[in-house]
Amino acid sequence: MSRRDGLRPDLALVADQIFDGSRVLDLGCGEGILLDHLIRTRGCRGTGVEIDPDAVLAAIRRGVPVIDRDIDVALADLADDSYDTVVLSRVLQTMLRPESVLQHMARVAERMIVSVPNFGYYPNRLRLLGGRMPISKEIPYAWYNSPNLRFTTLTDLEDLFDHLGLVIDRRFTYTQSGRRLRMSGRAPNLLAGAAVYVLRPAGRVR
Q: Which residue ranges run through the membrane (predicted)?
């Protein structure tokens, strides 16, 4: 994955999946870097949702519209089909109710982009076998200060997508160094440090 416009590699990949001129909702937008890029270079209209006050201020300074609310509450207040694409980048594992968040995302947009760390990555498994909780580039926290509340493998996550009637249009898997993995099936569940999914509710056409 290449870097562009100051985007970290996974955000550059996310940006590549968004059509020019789209209405974009970025959940857990942080300092608004992705939306700033999409608005300035791709003609998109965007709104971020962020609860960290310092990040909200940084996004506003960039000129990015931000809703300063918890993601669960903000989603419940949005009308159906309010956006073309909704992004949830490296945030799902921090949600108290990830199932509900995904259901609301499918309601407010016809396309969903979700990126997650893979807790099934083989070094994480080896660290657990050694009696320690995983710490890695994708999971850079100790057990006592981690914001992560949900620990999922790619296989478990894809089972949840299927349960919720979400169709995987594209799946990108990559190593912790950012190298794309050109493989399918279950192998990335062991070898991928993280993944980006492009989803749509069943019944929606691409």
A: none
